[in-house]
Amino acid sequence: MTDYFEFKANPKMEYRRLGRSGLRVSCLSLGGWLTLGGTVKGDPVRDIIKCAWENGVNFIDTAEGYAEGESEREIGRCLKELKIRRSDLVLSTKVFWGQGESPNSSGLSRKHIIEGLHASLERLQMDYVDVYFAHRPDPTVPMEEVVRAFNWCIEQGKAHYWGTSEWSAHEIEAAHHVCAKFGLIAPVAEQAEHSLMNRAKAEGEFLPIYESYGTKLTVFSALSGGFLTGKYNDGIPEGSRYAVHTEMDWLQERAKALSSPEGQKNIEKVRKLTEVAKGLGFSVTQLSIAYILKMGSTATVIMGCKTPEQMLEQLGALGAVEKIDKEVEKQVEEIFGNKPGPPRQWR
C-alpha cells in the first residue's frame, strides 16, 4: 500500500508534449486565476483538485499575482493534504506581478524573477516548479537579462522549463535569438488567450513561431471568460465573474459591451453555436473547448472551475473533439466568420 494519492491516466485524456520538450501535460489542465484562492477557498479548492486528479488532469497552473499569492497558498496546501506525489504532478507558476510597492517587486528584472520564484515556492510548499512563465513581457529589461534569469532558475533546480505568457511573436522570437546566441535554454511554451471569440494571435500572428521554434500554447480563456457557455445570453447572472469582480475595470467593460449592438450579435452567435453543439450531443461549453483542443498549436486548455461539477462538464469536451469534422468546422466558421488570414511578415 502507498501513502500517495496515486495518479491514474484517463484513457480519454491526451497527454501532449509541451513544445519541443519531453514534458507531457494533460490536454485539459486546471488553472487558479480568479477561482482557486480567490472566489473559492478552503475545502472546495481541495475538492476541485481531487476531481481533476481523479480524471487524469496532471497539470495545474497558477501565478504569484493570482489573489495576491493566495492561489499558490491554497493549491500548495491542498496538494499536500491530498498527498499527491510530486513526480506525478506538472505544476507551473508565473512571475511579473508580485506583492508590495517596492520598485523591484514586479516586472522581469533578474532580481524579481529569482526572488519571485523563491516566494512562490514558499507559498506552494514546493522545492521546484515544472514550468516558470514570464507572465507578461517587460520592455524595460534587456532580453538577455530575462533569459539568463530564467536559465539560472533552471540551473539551480528551482524550475525544469520556462515559458512566456501574453508575449508577442516578435518578443518570443527575440528570446529565442538570445538563447541561440549564448547557448541558453529557450522557452518551451506560450500561455495565450484563444477562443472562438479571440483567434487573431493564436491562429495568425503565432504561425511563424510554431513552425520555427515548435512553440505550443497553454491556452487560457477558451470560453472567452464564460461568454461561450451561454450564461450571459439573457443578462449577467448572480455569482458570475462579471457580477462578482466589480473591481476589475476591464471585466466591467466587457460586461457593458454585452448590451451593445456588437454584444447582441455575439450573443446570437453563441445561440447558434449552442444548436450545433446540441446536434452533436454536447453542450456549447464542451464544443467551444473541443474546437480549441483540436488545434495543432494547443498543448493544453486551462480550465477555470468553481465546482467539481463545472470541471466535469468541461472534461466532457474530450469526447467532442472527434465529432468535429469538416462539416462541423464549416458550420462553426459560418457562425463566427473570424478565422484570421496569414500573418504579416515580421522577420
TrEMBL record:
<protein>
    <recommendedName>
        <fullName>NADP-dependent oxidoreductase domain-containing protein</fullName>
    </recommendedName>
</protein>
<dbReference type="Pfam" id="PF00248">
    <property type="entry name" value="Aldo_ket_red"/>
</dbReference>
<dbReference type="InterPro" id="IPR023210">
    <property type="entry name" value="NADP_OxRdtase_dom"/>
</dbReference>
<keyword id="KW-0560">Oxidoreductase</keyword>
<dbReference type="InterPro" id="IPR005399">
    <property type="entry name" value="K_chnl_volt-dep_bsu_KCNAB-rel"/>
</dbReference>
<dbReference type="GO" id="GO:0016491">
    <property type="term" value="F:oxidoreductase activity"/>
</dbReference>
<keyword id="KW-0521">NADP</keyword>
<feature type="domain" description="NADP-dependent oxidoreductase">
    <location>
        <begin position="28"/>
        <end position="335"/>
    </location>
</feature>
<comment type="similarity">
    <text>Belongs to the shaker potassium channel beta subunit family.</text>
</comment>
<dbReference type="InterPro" id="IPR036812">
    <property type="entry name" value="NAD(P)_OxRdtase_dom_sf"/>
</dbReference>
